[in-house]
Amino acid sequence: MRFLCLHGKGTSAAIFKSQTASFRAKLDSSYSFDFVDAPFPSAPAAGIELFYSGPYRAFWNGTAIKDVRAAHQLLRTLLERDGPYDGVLMFSQGCAVVASFLLYHQAETPHLPLPFKVAIFICGGVPLQIIEELGGEISQQARDVDDRSRNELQQKAASIATVQPGVDRWARPGNLAFDPTASINPANVFGLDFSRIPADLRIKIPTVHVYGIKDPRYPASVQLSQFCQPTLRKTYDHGGGHDIPRGKVVSESIAELVEWSATMANMR
Fold first, then answer.
1. What is the greatest pairwise CA distance in the chain?
2. Residue 173: which pLDDT band, with cuts at 50, 70 and 90?
3. What is the C-alpha separation between 215 and 107, in angstroms, rounded?
4. pTM of the model
5. DSSP class of residue 158?
């Protein structure tokens, strides 16, 4: 089972390899992981320089749709050069690259098969401007939650250096952009009404969604899961923030989800 691995903005292939080492160590040798650096230099993700040295990379540094589409072309080139891959494993911006790529692929070339059999999203989301361009309706609530959660992530991550030993660095503040205790209502998933999302805006391969309830960007991760087929998706809340906890229970749980994805891939 061969996976392409795309890291988050302001990190690197080497950093993502380290971040995933704990759960990958629990998989047998039939699994291989190809970690790829994004093309552009980037400032480090907030707080990451405390744990990892650079260089730091990004798939895009702006927010324009043209930047996202340029990343898609880079992905196509990579697949032509190094593929095929059975699956794709991503974190944060890497998730945005692939989720948007798959949605555009289905909308623009529905007669062609998707280039992956399965996808594993960790702390990811779909850019709202992409959803809107593909025909999804974006409410003001969704925009507000997106803006506030991005700002909260930056503030939370930037404060890591001042957290005292033994204190949970992802402890929830009182001003989160969402209610972490609220149940998921498909008609209002943090401002997105999935009862009105076009059928083509559903990723049609098996997916795994790993996220943390303490992540300020938790709403984006839940929204991304709703863009995937309910009967073909697995979700897992690791209980932490915008990261990949490496404890025994979390690592074993993620490894089991990778194995589930392999089983699903072999059925396709």
1. 54
2. low
3. 30
4. 0.94
5. H
